Amino acid sequence: MEDHTGKPEFWETAFEDKQEMWGFKPSNSAVLIKDFFVGKSLKNILIPGIGYGRNAQIFADNRMTVTGIEISKTAIEMAENHYGTKMLIHHGSVTAMPFDKNLYDGIFCYALIHLLGRTEREKLIRDCYDQLLNGGYMVFAVISKTAPSYGKGKFVSKDCYEIFEGLNMYFYDQESIQTEFGEFGLLEVTAITESQPFFLIKCKKEQR
Q1: Could you tell me how many helices (H) and strands (E) the chain has, helices first?
Q2: What does the DSSP 8-state code read for residue 144?
Q3: Between 42 and which of 11, 37, 113, 116 could a Cys-Cys bridge form, CB atoms 3.0 to 4.6 Å apart?
Q4: Contacts with 151 (C-beta within 8 Å, 6 or more apart), sequence order
Q5: Quick check: 71 pLDDT over 80?
Q6: 167: left (phi over 0), alpha (psi -120 to 50) or beta
Q7: 1 contacts 140 by C-beta, under 8 angstroms
Q8: What confidence score (pLDDT) does residue 72 get?
Q9: Residues 101-130: tens digit of each pLDDT
Q10: Based on the number of CB atoms within 10 Å of its own CB, is 98 exposed (0-12), middle (13-18) or buried (19 or more)?
Q11: 39 - beta bridge partners?
Q12: Is 113 in contact with 3 (CB distance < 8 Å)?
């Protein structure tokens, strides 16, 4: 999985060893959400766990202003080397959000939230929602319980497994999506295939 949370040593080692391990082609999710954001005329996008930018540049190429959050200094340097410095990237863990006082009309979070514990997941969803403008959209790409890796590795808690040392993964289904996202403007859930089966979870912030 590309995006990163609160374990800087783990992710720094991964990037130093593999460099651009996912290549430069954006994920299927990023392509679909780019089209969705373009269709909604969104302009200012926040990407928690931006990595080295392969899922961010597609938004910048479509005249959106992109701000990222990334815990790996190596990944940030790679993003600057490949894509320049037009994208502002805050260095730090997504668990420390917010990093600015800006409100965004779009947030895209790819393959990240399922790497967090329950309390951290709840905080990330709320933090993202709080940084949305009224009428704005946030989209999370999460791994599904239908993935072949579900149930593999060391059992941690319900639907959560340590896939390999130092990396826990929580697997979603429709029920857990409703539980975690239901009160945050849950709009639509779509199944999508990445390297494993994912869900795209769309939420819209309505004025309260």
Answers
A1: 6, 10
A2: B
A3: 37
A4: 161
A5: yes
A6: beta
A7: no
A8: 92
A9: 999 999 999 999 999 999 999 999 999 999
A10: middle
A11: none
A12: no
Instruction: Give pLDDT, residue 5.
Output: 46
Q: How far is CA 40 from CA 81, 137, 141, 153, 189, in A?
A: 30, 9, 19, 40, 18
- CA 37 to chain centroid, in Å, comes to 15
Name the percent of the chain in helix, strand, coil, to the closest 5: 30, 30, 40
Evaluate if residue 12 carries a pLDDT over 80. no
DSSP 8-state class, residue 114: G
Query: Which amino acid is present at 98?
Result: P
> What mean pLDDT value characterizes the chain?
89
Supply 4's token pair: 């990163």
Angle, helices 8-18 vs 73-83, to 10°: value is 40
Torsion of CA 178, 198, 163, 122, to 10 degrees: -30
Q: How far is 190 from 11, CA to CA, in rounded Å?
A: 29
